[in-house]
Structures are given as C-alpha cells and as structure tokens.
C-alpha cells in the first residue's frame, strides 16, 4: 500500500483538491463580479444621458452664428424722422400733442391733410388754429411726404394707440454714455470740436449753464439747459438729427449731425439738466459782444488820441513859431 507521500499517487489526489479550490474561488468571485457588472450597467445609462445632455448644450453654442439684427418697421423710421421730435404716442405731450387715439378724435381726411400740409389748415380750420395757440404758437412744418406715407403714419399711430410700440428706431439710450462722450458733447456744443458735416457750433444760437466756455452762448435760440427734461432722450435725439424748428432746419438741412455726434450732445445736455450746481451767472452773447465792443472802442480811442497828439503838437509848435516870427517882424 503506498504511503501518503508517494509521488506516483499524490498528483491524482491533488487534482480534485485544486478543482474544489478553484470552484470555491469562482463562486466567491462570481457575486462580486456580477455586482460590479450590475453597477457598471446602472451607471452607464446615467453617464450616457449626461454626455448626451452636455453635447446638446454645447452643440448650439458651437454652431451658433451671429443673427442679423431684426428689421425695423419702415413706418417707425418715418415716424422717427418726421414726427418724433415733436410728438409721442402714449408718452405725453412734447413740442406738440400726444398722438395717442388721435384717429378716434379726428376723421382720416382731416389727419391726412394736417400731416401732409399743415400750413393749408391754419387759414381754413379753426381746430388747427386752436392747436397752434395751445402749443405756444409753434407751427408744424409741411413734411414733404407722399400721401401713401401719411396714410402709413396714421395706421401706425392707430396701432400704437391700441398696443404700446417702441417708436425709437435704432436708438441708444444716453444712460450708456461715458465721461469721455459727455466731454465730447461739451466740446461740440462750444465749438472746440467741429461737426463732421460742417454745421455751426450750438453755442452760436444757444446757451447751457455750466458749459465751461470763456465765451457765453447766444440768445437767438432758447436756453438748452433743461432741453433734455423738455424733450426726453428720444425726442432730443430726433430734434438733433432731424430738426423741425424753422431756423435749425435751415441751418442743418445740408449739414446733418452724425449719430455719434448727436449721442455726445445728448449726453452733455443730460448732464447739464441733472447738474444742480451748474453755473447760472453766464453772460448772454449780446451783452458779451457789447462789452467787447466797448473795450475795442476805448482801445481805438487811446491809439487814435496818441496819433492826433503826434500830428497836432508839431503843427501847433510850427504855428506858434510862425506867429511869433510875424509879431517880431511887425515890431521892427
């Protein structure tokens, strides 16, 4: 009978032991591997969903292209160019009346004529004359637009009376102005910087308190210190770009302001309007002119007086000498 350590028998006895051991480890590892696989199976969909969502968020950003600006209704641009400096729709009176609901108060034919040729209404229509008196005698100019444009403006006012509209066109609010732009507006106003279109400096006709100029402004036009409060940001923008006031219209008809110039002037006028410490002692241009003229006359008188003395004294001496010589000859 072989012993327990007989090498010929030991291998046969070892195979079942190894098989049992391997089976035990396989059974022990099975649940762990299965659990890991199950966990991976549960995490995979969540990870896949997260990746899909990330791609969905990133895709528009990666493929997004600059969108062209939305087109502005041409009727709004027409309103801005021809009407907005004097009128609003639903925002109160400006230079002229608020047009909200005007289509319900006047018939269309009246509106058509009043918008296209208001000058023809003053001689024949009592309501037009009353409006002129009510709004400080400021005459509405003939706009020089077609009947079709007038009709489109009436339709626009009717629509904006029923539902609020943004009647500002391509407008940038003055609240975004920087100190540099405010300073540029001051320079344009007093003439330290010339307008690109060749227009005259604003101070030729207007004055603003606190404009920091050695020469005061003119009095041909109104004081513009509180123009921003009277016209509002949008109204002032239109008044600068498309002035309807008779004198300004003639002066700037061939010398329009650039958009950035009008913005800088609005920024300066907004600053002047909101500055309670603005200098109120500025002289008017006529008074300043009188003072300068007086100073020039005094200077010329002094120069001319010297000239007269330079000529008169030698003549007086010669005359005295001749008179003395004559008396001496008479005595002899």
Indicate the mean pLDDT: 74
Residues in helices, as a percent range:
55-70%
CATH H-level superfamily title of the largest domain: Cytochrome c-like domain
Biggest sheet overview: none
Number of strands: 0
User: What is the structural class?
Assistant: mainly alpha
Q: Round the Cα radius of gyration to an integer and report it.
A: 45 Å
Q: From the 3D coordinates, which CATH architecture of the largest domain would you assign? A: Orthogonal Bundle
CATH class of the largest domain: Mainly Alpha
By CATH, the topology of the largest domain is: Cytochrome Bc1 Complex, Chain D, domain 2
Q: Kindly give the count of domains.
A: 3
Provide a descriptive summary of the structure in words.
This protein is mainly alpha-helical and 332 residues long. The chain has 3 domains: 50 residues; 89 residues, Cytochrome c-like domain (Cytochrome Bc1 Complex, Chain D, domain 2); 99 residues, Cytochrome Bc1 Complex, Chain D, domain 2 (Orthogonal Bundle). 61% of the residues lie in helices and 0% in strands. Helix 4 crosses helix 7, helix 8 packs across helix 11 and helix 9 runs antiparallel to helix 11. The longest helix has 54 residues. The chain is elongated, with a radius of gyration of 45 Å. The N and C termini lie far apart (200 Å). The N terminus is likely disordered.
């Amino acid at each position: 009978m072989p012993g327990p350590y007989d090498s010929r028998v030991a291998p046969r006895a070892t195979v079942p032991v190894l098989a049992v051991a391997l089976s035990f480890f396989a059974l022990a590892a099975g649940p762990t591997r299965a659990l890991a696989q199950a966990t991976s199976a549960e995490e995979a969909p969540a990870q896949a969903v997260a990746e899909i969502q990330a791609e969905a968020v990133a895709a528009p950003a990666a493929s997004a292209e600059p969108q062209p600006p939305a087109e502005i209704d041409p009727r709004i641009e027409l309103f801005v160019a021809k009407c907005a400096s004097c009128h609003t729709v639903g925002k109160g009176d400006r230079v002229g009346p608020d047009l909200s609901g005007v289509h319900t108060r006047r018939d269309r034919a009246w509106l058509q004529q009043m918008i296209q040729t208001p000058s023809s209404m003053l001689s024949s229509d009592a309501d037009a004359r009353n409006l002129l008196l009510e709004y400080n005698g400021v005459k509405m100019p003939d706009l020089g637009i077609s009947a079709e444009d007038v009709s489109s403006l009436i339709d626009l006012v009717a629509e904006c009376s029923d539902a609020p509209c943004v009647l500002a066109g391509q407008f940038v609010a003055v609240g975004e102005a920087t100190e540099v732009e405010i300073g540029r507006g001051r320079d344009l106003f007093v003439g330290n910087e010339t307008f690109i279109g060749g227009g005259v400096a604003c101070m030729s006709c207007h004055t603003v308190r606190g404009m920091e100029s050695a020469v005061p402004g003119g009095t041909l036009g109104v004081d513009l210190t509180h123009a921003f409060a009277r016209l509002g940001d949008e109204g002032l923008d239109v008044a600068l770009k498309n002035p309807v006031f008779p004198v300004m219209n003639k002066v700037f008809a061939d010398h329009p302001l650039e958009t950035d110039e009008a913005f800088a002037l609005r920024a300066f006028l907004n600053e002047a309007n909101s500055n309670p410490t603005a200098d109120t002692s500025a002289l008017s241009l006529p008074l300043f002119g009188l003072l300068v003229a007086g100073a020039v006359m005094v200077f010329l008188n002094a120069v001319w007086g010297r000239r007269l003395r330079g000529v008169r004294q030698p003549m007086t001496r010669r005359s005295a000498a001749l008179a003395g010589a004559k008396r001496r000859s008479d005595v002899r």
